[in-house]
Amino acid sequence: MSNLLPLQAPGHSNVDYEMRVDMDRLRTYRLDRAKKSLESSECGAFLLFDFYNIRYTTQTWIGGALGDKMTRYALLTRDGDPMLWDFGSAVRHHQLYSPWLKPENNRPGMLGMRGAVAPSAGLMESAIREIKALLVEAGVADSPIGVDIVEPPFLFEMQRQGLTVVDAQQLMLDAREIKSVDEIMLLNQAAAMVDGVYQDIVDVLKPGIRENEIVALANKRLYELGSDQVEAVNAISGDRCNPHPHNFTDRIIRPGDQAFFDIIHSFNGYRTCYYRTFAVGSATTSQRDAYKKAREWMDAAIATVTAGVGTDDIARVWPKATDFGFANELAAFGLQFGHGLGLGLHERPIISRLNSLDNPIEIKAGMVFALETYCPATDGFSAARIEEEIVVAENGVHVLTRFPAQELFVANEY
After folding, report:
1. Could you give the 3-state DSSP secondary structure of residue 81?
2. Domain ranges of the chain
3. Residue 95 in contact with residue 106, Cβ under 8 Å?
4. In whole angstroms, how far apart are CA 397 and each of 191, 264, 266?
5. Closest residue by Cα to residue 361 from 340, 390, 335, 385
6. Tens of pLDDT along 188-247?
7. Which residues contact 274 (CB under 8 A, 6 or more apart)?
8. CATH code for the domain defined by 181-411
9. Taking a C-beta distance cutoff of 8 angstroms, is the pair 338, 355 a contact?
10. Residues lower than pLDDT 70 in the chain
11. Is residue 119 reached through a cis peptide bond, with omega within 30 degrees of 0 on the bond before it?
């Protein structure tokens, strides 16, 4: 660890006196990775609906209300430039401000907004005729076309028009698993923003504040700090800690509560998943013991991570589901857990006793992932939750998540 150079979290803007994120280099890296994945496959083209895959290949983004409507899509052929079908006036905006996409490769698209316009209106049929014509022009219409996610009527229409559809999601996740220096810098900057938000949370984490108020504070501060999307903030306290509900309520936080939070947001698209656990005012022996175990499991996992090991090696250092009160690994999934971070919240590798023991994958330098541990307390309702985000280097690991977590942090101690 001591031989690793520090990672930059340089700020939000570019300056003339430091080398920071190089967006052109980032765009080139991502498209090259996607192209190589396509070339390694049987596919003649990828047709992408997953928002993160669209961003990875076209370097464009629309968030908010359109994020789950399945109306944006991109086509990537072996020898061609990316083509994007987007929502209404966004097309003209891309033509003005996204010069890496040829103007003619920005096209309006509308497929029905997840069925709000029925397939019988013909929007899907005409879109697929257009796509098929482009595949014929590129000379790949007889090869399989890889699709990542799709609405059933669109899939059926592709098949009706004679296209052979195969899975592209695995191939795109292959492309996205190794992060460039620019991606790592953006992930580090996103984590640095959450470091600061946790300080704000600690300052107000006192009896009388409600879980939803903490969520509001975190959202406000993240957007002030430059977040482009706050995907979720979990706030769990007191008797809600065990079992973990993965949400927040309007519960009033009380003296002596254990409370944990998960902050999930993105900076320039790159995400955090960042838990911290606190005691409010004071901590019991039961709460401290649970935290100590969760920390031991975390430290054992981090110590195991190195380029070349398998995800099964990491999963084995965590307790079995039956050791902490669950019937099986499926019922406990997500509690002792690792997941890749990037443009998506859950990328490669996914690490758990559920899938990794029998189907391990190799840890590689350049992977970035979060490790999560959870330990219920013997009082029956408290619990500790810790998460660290790490970058795998050739000779060690970097931990991106810096807010103190080696011991149970007592906020506003009495």
Report:
1. coil
2. 23-176, 181-411
3. yes
4. 16, 22, 22
5. 340
6. 999 999 999 999 999 999 999 999 999 999 999 999 999 999 999 999 999 999 999 999
7. 191, 194, 262, 263, 264, 370, 387, 389, 401
8. 3.90.230.10
9. no
10. 1-5
11. no
In residues, how long is the chain? Answer: 414
Angstrom distance (rounded) from CA 62 to CA 86: 9
Dump pLDDT digits (tens) for 296-325: 999 999 999 999 999 999 999 999 999 999
Cβ neighbours, 10 Å, residue 92: 13
Distance of CA 263 to the CA centre of its chain: 12
Distance, C-alpha 286 to centroid of its chain: 33
Tokens of 102: 């040829």
Which stretch of DSSP H or E encloses residue 384? strand 383-393
Q: For residues 138 and 77, is the Cβ–Cβ distance under 8 A?
A: yes
Per-residue DSSP letters for 28-69?
Answer: HHHHHHHHHHHHTSS-SEEEE-SHHHHHHHH-----GGGTTS
* pLDDT score, position 10: 82
The second-level CATH assignment, the architecture, of 23-176 is: 3-Layer(aba) Sandwich (3.40)
